[in-house]
Amino acid sequence: MNQIILFDGVCQFCDKSVQFILKRDLNGKFSFCSLQSDTGFQLRKDYHIPEELDSIILIQGEKYHSKSTAALKIARELKGGWKWLYIFIVIPRPIRDAVYDRVARNRLKWFGEKTACELPTPEVRKRFLS
């Protein structure tokens, strides 16, 4: 099953996260789409994702996951020891999301905004929805 990751296209931390996932998603399970793109907007509409939700969003089949749940489900699919992070799913979601929200609120202040785009290889470019 192909899974779609929606991310903030202007956030440096989000961009680095996408690059991190790409390097560890050796089977190409994930496709990527910026929340700010036309396709991102349409996916939000199709999946009834609230507009004010600006966190990482993982679309799997007919469902979507956001915030810490999305991050942990993504980690579970990555090469290496990252899959072990999924054990934190046992922590109640409100607690996990409180930590996630703290980072999310400060991500632009701590990591900045993207000022330039890296040109991906044609192979990687195919994994991005426009």
From TrEMBL:
- Signal peptide positions are none
Task: State the Gene Ontology terms under molecular function.
Answer: protein-disulfide reductase activity
Highest taxon of source: Bacteria
- Give the PANTHER family listed for this entry: DUF393 DOMAIN-CONTAINING PROTEIN, THIOL-DISULFIDE OXIDOREDUCTASE DCC
Annotated protein name in UniProt: Thiol-disulfide oxidoreductase
Q: Give the classification, highest ranks.
A: Bacteria, Bacillati, Bacillota, Bacilli, Bacillales
